[in-house]
Amino acid sequence: xxxxxxxxxxxxxxxxxxxxxxxxxxxxSLDRRISLYVQKILGCDFEKAQEIRxxxxxxxxxxLAGLRAKFGVSPxxxxxxxxxxxxxxxxxxxxxxxxxxxxxxxxxxxxxNGRSDWSRTGCKRMGIYDCFRRIVGLEDLNWEGKPQISAYxxxxxxxxxxxxxxxxxxxxxxxxDDSLKNLKPAAERGWRTIWxxxxxxxxxxxxxxxVENLIKLGIRNEEC
Length: 224
Ligand SMILES: [Mg+2]
Prior knowledge:
alpha/beta, two-stranded parallel sheet, DNA polymerase, domain 1, Rossmann fold
């Protein structure tokens, strides 16, 4: 159970956190565009592009980081191509998510490794865009996302700039993310971490809670 008070700051990853594993087709549609972009830059076939992406993920953390290191690709060129709306699938309207988010008393942010237009469009489709104070996207993180330490530092500086807190009390920050890799540095900073994952895999020690999906998260109001 998480205490639902006004001083709790809620940070949500977007992909596979604000929309669920059951809507993986959303992520798959984006993933296909990323492979097509790699294919375009390298002038190779689709299968080869997918192999190269695996190498980049291993060596650089993300496909974009690999493309930047190897070819000096501009992040905006990459995102303009992969976010072309006519090729993408978006999450369905989600009134239950809206109801859940609106019950949270503290400020809510999206903290995502995508350029913010992707989650903005998706959240508008789900009907939850206005539930968030701001989207902190990869463009706000100097194109260096989670799990790089600089991303978490930047997120904390946004909270100060926005005036949601005067100084950082890490135990007041909650990050919900489907990726353990992204939760670990957050836990190391003293943030609370919630792993959104529908498998039966047990949670590792650095994760405070595990939920099948975010609307299943147990929250308790101060007065109760
Ligand atoms: Mg994610």
